[in-house]
Structures are given as structure tokens and as C-alpha cells.
Amino acid sequence: MLGTMMDRPLLVSSLLQHAERVHGDRVNLSCEAGEVRRAFTYRELGSDARRLAAALSELGVQHGTRVGSLAWNSDRHLAAYFGVPGIGAVLHTINQRMPAEHIAYAVNQAEDRVLLVDADLLPVARQIVPATPSVQHVVVLGDGEADIPGVRSWSFDDLIAEAAELATFPELDERTAASICFTSGTTGLPKGVVYTHRSTVLHALAISLSGGVAISPERSYLVACQMSHVNSWGVPHAATMQGARLVLPGPHPSPLDYLKIITRHRPDMLIGAPAVMGLIRHEYLARRGEFDLSSIRTVWMGGQTPPPALVEWWAGHGANTVNGWGMTETHPMATFSQGHTDQGRPLPLVELRVVDEEGVELPWDGRSAGELEARSPWVTGSYLGQTGPSESFHDGWLRTGDVAVIEPDGTLRIKDRFKDLVKSGGEWISSVELENHLMEHPAITEAAVVAVPHEKWQERPVAWLVTATDVTDDELRDFVRSKFPSYWVPDAFVRVDAIPKTSVGKVDKATIRKQQTTSSLAPSAG
Amino acid sequence: MLGTMMDRPLLVSSLLQHAERVHGDRVNLSCEAGEVRRAFTYRELGSDARRLAAALSELGVQHGTRVGSLAWNSDRHLAAYFGVPGIGAVLHTINQRMPAEHIAYAVNQAEDRVLLVDADLLPVARQIVPATPSVQHVVVLGDGEADIPGVRSWSFDDLIAEAAELATFPELDERTAASICFTSGTTGLPKGVVYTHRSTVLHALAISLSGGVAISPERSYLVACQMSHVNSWGVPHAATMQGARLVLPGPHPSPLDYLKIITRHRPDMLIGAPAVMGLIRHEYLARRGEFDLSSIRTVWMGGQTPPPALVEWWAGHGANTVNGWGMTETHPMATFSQGHTDQGRPLPLVELRVVDEEGVELPWDGRSAGELEARSPWVTGSYLGQTGPSESFHDGWLRTGDVAVIEPDGTLRIKDRFKDLVKSGGEWISSVELENHLMEHPAITEAAVVAVPHEKWQERPVAWLVTATDVTDDELRDFVRSKFPSYWVPDAFVRVDAIPKTSVGKVDKATIRKQQTTSSLAPSAG
């Protein structure tokens, strides 16, 4: 039977082109130290991206060439989001907070030929370049140049000032790689996730659907999650497609910077990790009366479950907290919740299931806990450099490593990371549930529970706590017993000044476990 | 470079499966004569679709088999929307208002093997079956059976009652044909447009984006546009994906039926042609005080520009009028406007351009008028049975036959159909602009302007008018001259009881021209 639809590919450049033509006058902001460094329209973004594409081609960047970025949230980084994939090259966004050896490992894995580097991150580039032979060019995202032996140095601003705009982005196969992001690697080396043009466009559509995340035209988004990690949760792509205003905080944003930007430029939505939202709250309170948060109607907290006290505080300032579930491997959005007490329901085209230890699917009954698995056009099917079967996949589904139940209506409740469960005397203890409960105690501002090896019980929980006021161990034991069986009571409550965090702001349980297991614990659980 | 996203296809069945699992309890309504015949959840819809798929397989329906539907908006038709494409077969929705010879032509072109027929449309099926040798089975959408010589007859309700649910829909290539709709054929024979799974899913995503058409979860849609024409503008697919409530009016809905449904079931949005909205208004006024339209917040009018008076009337009842531009070939939504005075801006992934008579692209300046061309993953690339190049396409773009300008911000303004322009003495006269102006005259309720051949001027405009009160030709001439040059004044104002309409409710200019050109006109234009 003849007759069909046009075979038009889903391309990252089509999002930009739409913005140039239909939202051309819409103004975005790129900030530095809480001040606007540049207000730029989508038409200007298009011009930058087209010039960057032309300039990179001159440097030898071709279809498939990897271009690394060591950069904060800015107009220049955003131009790379479109200019690099636009010509079929691949933007490898490097998490600048990873240890240098992990960064070098990632650059070598990706075989980056060019590095785009913010001026303040040049020391990192200097440190890794000797160990990353694929790198031939370093482009400083500004008007200066680097002086790094063994590579050619360029200024981004000079490059695009001299380049002519690429008139037409090439028509690529939509399954062409568009960007790479490495997992944060809390266990072992980071793994590279390769996003395609197709997955990027579909994810942008999915997070712009009404009733969900709903990245919307005319609204204004302060992006406090890093463009160097999972494409800032897809917000830059979706906002461009929808003609929303992006407010990019620039290098090393401090809580004070955020408060200045919010007060002066009045974004509707604030997007980032709970840790950042907590710091903004802290700074706001320290400078009582100086700043105005009233424009923020929604706080989207991702990465981990927001503490209830933080949610309440923002609600007191008129901002609803929303969240979702996802990971680097899922682009990241797989579910979304209009609230904060669960992880919400799957987005369209995302399939979720929980399976038992034999891999058999469990019912959606809100009780049957198992490992969460995901399948979608925007879930990774294989990692960068993966050459054979991987334990991360099961029968075509991604194994997430999360323990979850699913309610009959599809609502996801993450119970724990598999590796964070405490196996005590043949019973499972959820570290996440313990943490959430502990954080409801008025004296506790932060809590992390880890398993430590135990002669008799195999493993026992230990709690690390940041406390605001004094509280005795006995009081804490009673508090835990008020909700859980007594064998859930941690063997120790360790007071610390701060909980160790990973490069993306998550609780770093590997470090806690390491430090904790150097001490020995007497058998005490009953 | 290894590492990529999962290669999951975009399938119509994935929309249904999402609804079954995530919106399973959401209740839709299927009506008859203004009463609810059946309230059904998405889980029940899934069960029906899976049983229908199994039953059709038993009748020999396979991958690629065409299944025609001669049916109104109902739960059974909706089950076919998912059950037929779910197994790789193709649902050919037949516009029941087309003349029988066009229906037979379409069935023969599509080579339908099975016809799904609403009981009241069996006379049409009886009339065409002798001329459509491909048809082997007629399934009556109800609990009765047909008695048509030469084909086997079945009852839909019996078939699905006896069938076991298909557990898993097959994984198809997303470019597999999902449905066929024929153009309404105002000139010549209708042409078949073949929608794919990919285009259907992408269109569903596009019309669910926030800030646009925004088919939204939890909202309720009274679908007054026919499921037999361009998939009811994609609303059934998008509503299923989003978990919105569908309110389907059933066979031969009268204005009174709509009023009953709106008053009792309080849908948020009413979707259909301006003609239907006008009839509902008329019936409401005739039964003053009996019905309540207050639930309707939005009236989405498509197919043609809504008359300003109708828009104002609905606004007076609290309902905002929205509209967009599209055609059978564009699935249909290509643009959308939150208002009604223009056709809005392109949806993401839709490219538009206007070209001059040599095919050269014109600027988006709000002034340069040319033929509108469209390109998108949900625009047709070739017609059913098309074997060679077609005049409908130009360099990979669809030629729409519409004359338009595009504003610098992408706002589309359709000026006319090419064939409805009047070429008088070397100048173009827009019949649409004349009609819109005439309908602003208080005495005129409907107007249609056509070109008739003229010895001296080549063509001259003639206006057909439905009037509410008396008005002289002189008054009308003055009224036209108040806005347009005098050569725009129609040579004749013909009073009629009703303007002829096509099977989809559009003004039937072909018929008007035919009737008008049998009369002769004296040269009078200056």
C-alpha cells in the first residue's frame, strides 16, 4: 500500500529552529554573581549556535566527533547544546564536580577532541589534559584564551565573532548521538550514557505535556540544576522548544546569587536539588527581609526526596514542591508528581515494572517491593563503550537498582537503593525510611543511614546526624521505636557537622560506609 | 561509538497501554440521543480493544489488512481506534456524510476487507457492498447483525463477548500504517491520507503540550467533530494518552442532544466545526433557560474561521474560542491559536513557509502572500495509491492550496483557498475577506462569495447570503465599499435560505459556482 507520512527526523536542531522562527524575540538571561551578564533572544541563541557549528567544523569537528564541555549554566554552554549536535557532533557534558581522575577517565572514554571550558574551570582542564591524548583544542567560554601545553587554545567569543552563521543544519538520522553524560559513579567508575537526537526531542515533548512537568511557553525557569549533568533534566531543550524564558545562574552560583536573581528577575519556577533549595532557604533567613521569593510558584526538586521541613518552608512562601523519579540513564524524567510524598506516575511512553529476585514481574498493589525496571525510547539501551551483555539490563529493560512499589494507579514509591538496604538477621531494613523518619524529629536537620558489617546479624544500621539542638541517644531510640520494630533502631547515632555529598549533591553513602566500618560495633541489636 | 538509547517504537498501542495502567479508572462517556449509553473506564476500553483485536484476527485480519469504519463517535468506534492498529491492521475511517459513490470509491481504493458499521448506517453499507468486492465481513457496532448478501455478518458486541483479550500487542515498526482518512473532496475524487503509528503518537504529544491545544489530564472533552474524519482532530488518541475524559455523543447527534449532554455531564471543552457550534447556540436560544452551558470554558472551532458573532456569543457564556489551522493531510493540527482572529503559530516540529508562483520562499513579514507549504513528521508525504510524483508536493513540502501570510512571530493568517480567489481585471479579490466583512453586517447571518466567469474582467465575485432582516443591495454595496475598493463589490447579492455545505460542514463553493454560472451577468464592475 502506497501513501505515508513524511519521513522527517526528530532533531535537536529542529527545536532550535522552531525557537528562532516562532519564539525569536523571547529573552533569556545569563547571569554571573547574581547579575545579568547577558540578555539574549532565541534568535541570538540560534545565531551563536550556528556560528559555533561553523567554527567547530573549521577545527575539524565532524559527524560523530565528541566535544567535551566543562562549563556552568550559561548562554555559551546553551549555544553548545545546539551548535554541537546540530552538525552531528556529540556534546559530552562533564560534571565539573567529579574528581579530576574521574573527569580524565570520562574524557578518555568519550575520546573528546575539543574541550569547551569556563574560565574558572581552566585549572581542571590543565590538570587533565596531559592524561587525555584525544584532546586537541581547548576553547575558553569567554573572551580569553588558555595557555595549556600540547593543545591549541581558542576564545569562544572570538571564534563565533569571526565565524559565519551555518545557514542550514544537516538532516541527520534521528538515532545519531547528540550528547553524552556520565553517571555520578557513587560505586566504581562513572558510566557514559549516550543520548540521541530522537530521545532528546521525545523527552522534551514529554516534559512539556500539560498536566505533568509542563515546561510551558511564556513561563520563566531558574535552572539551578547543572547543565553539566543530565542536560539540566532536559529543561534547556524543552524551554527552547516551548519558548519559555531560561534564567541561567552562571559560574559557581552561591545561595546569595540565587536570591538576587529571584528577587530581580522573578522566575516562576526554581529547579534543582533539595540541597540547593535548603541553602537558598538558609541564606534567605540569614538576610531576613532583604529578598523576595514571591515570584516562585513551583519548586521542582530532583535527585532525592526533599525533606518535609524544606517542602513546608517553601509552601509557606507560596511555592508548591513537585518532584519525579529518574536517573542519568532515563534522560532523566521517567515519572512526575505534582506533590512530593511519592515519585508520581510514569510519563507517557515510559514503562515501569517491579520484579522479584528471580526477575518475575510483581503486581502494582502498593505492597509488593522489588527492583524497579524501566523501558522507554528515552532510556539507555547500552552504555558508552559497552561491548557485551551488561548486568544493568534485564530482558530489554533497564535495571535501576532502586527498590520500589507501584500503586494500582501507577504511582511509584521508591523505597531504597538496593545497595542501601540493611540486611539484619535475615530481615531488610530500609535506610531511606529510617532517614525520613529521623528527619521528622525537631532536633535533626539531616540524617544518613548506612549498613555496617556485623558478626552476628550480618549487617546493622548506623545513623549519621546533623542536629540543630541537643537530643540524647535514648530519645532517638524511642523516636525510632515509635514507628518501626526495635530491630530497626540504629546501633549508633553519630553526630557530624555535615553529611558527605557526591559531586551531584546526593548523600555519599560509600564514603560514610567506608569511614564508619573502620570503627567496630558491639553486638547490640535484639 | 557504542552506547545508545533503547530502540522502542512509537505505537498507538503504547498510548492505550499507558491509559490502561496509569489512567485505568478514569471514566469516559458514550452517549445516544443525549443520554449516557455507557460509562466506561480506560481499563474497559483496553479490554474491548484487546478482544476486538483477537476477534478480527479470527476473521483473517492481519498486519496491513484494511478495516473500514462507517461509524459515529462511540465507545465501540474508540475500541476500533486501538484494536485495529494494535495488530498492525489499518483503520479506514469513512466519512459517513460523503455521497455513496465517494464512499464506494474510498472503500475500493483502501481495499477494505472488513466494515465496522453503526446500525443506522447499514443502509449505506447495503448500498455500497455490491460495488466493493474487497469487503468480506460486515460487523454491526451493536448487538444486532446485518443481512447483506455476499458478505458475512457479525455483531460487534457478540464478537468481543466471545473473544479472549489479546495479552500483548505486537511490536511493530513505528512507520506501519495505522489509519486512513480520505480528504473531503470538494474538487474531484477524495484522496486517501495514510497516518502511521509514528505520526499518530507524535501528533498526540504535540496537541497535549502545555500552552497549546493542551489536551490535559483530568479535563473533559465533548467531541463534536466526527471520529470518521481526521481522527476527530487527534483528540481520542491524545485524551487516552493523557487520561482525559472523552464524552462521545453517539449516532446523529442533534443540537438538543449536545445541550442535554453539556448540562448533565459538564464537559470543560467543546470541539467541533463552527456550524455545529452555531446550531447549538440556536437550539439553546430556542429553549431559553432550559439548559446550562456554564461548564464549557473553551470552544475549539476547526475547519473554517468562526464568524465573529458566534465567537462573541460563546464568550458571553464564559467560553473562550480557540482555533488552529490544518487539513486532512496534516493530521490535522499544524498551528494553534489561543484566540480566533488568526490561525496561530506552528506547533513544535511543524515547519511552514509561503512561496510565490515560482516556488520561491517569501518573508515572514505579515504582508507577502503566497501559497502555504508545510513539512512535519505528521504531514503526508504521499497519498494512498499514488504511484508517481504529485502536484500536491513541492520539493518535499506539502502544497496546501491555501493563500496565506505569516507574521514575523510565526502567526499564520490564511487569506483564502487558491481556487476561491477571484481574479478580476488582473487583480485578486479575496472571497474570504469579503465573506468575513459581510458577516459583520447585522442583517447577514451567513455569506459565501464565489468567482463567476466574466467576459470583460475574466472573473467577478458574487455573494450568496442568508439574511436575518431586510437589507437592500445598495446598502450592501455601501457596506463593502466602506472597507474595500469598489471593484471588490460583488456583481450580485443572492439571498438564499441556506448555504450549501460539504460532508464535513464546510461551505460547498463548487456547488455554488456550478449553480451560479448557469445564470449570466451583465458587465457592471468598474
From TrEMBL, chains A, B:
InterPro entries: AMP-bd_C (IPR025110), AMP-bd_C_sf (IPR045851), AMP-binding_CS (IPR020845), AMP-dep_synth/lig_dom (IPR000873), ANL_N_sf (IPR042099), ATP-dep_AMP-bd_enzyme (IPR050237)
Database matches in Pfam families: AMP-binding, AMP-binding_C
GO MF annotation list: ligase activity, forming carbon-sulfur bonds
Origin superkingdom: Bacteria
Record has Membrane as a keyword: no
Domain AMP-dependent synthetase/ligase: 18-384
Alphabetic keyword roster: Ligase
Span of domain AMP-binding enzyme C-terminal: 433-506
SUPFAM superfamilies, alphabetized: Acetyl-CoA synthetase-like (SSF56801)
Family affiliation: Belongs to the ATP-dependent AMP-binding enzyme family.
PANTHER family: LONG-CHAIN-FATTY-ACID--COA LIGASE, MEDIUM-CHAIN-FATTY-ACID--COA LIGASE
Record protein name field: Fatty-acyl-CoA synthase
Lineage start: Bacteria, Bacillati, Actinomycetota, Actinomycetes, Pseudonocardiales
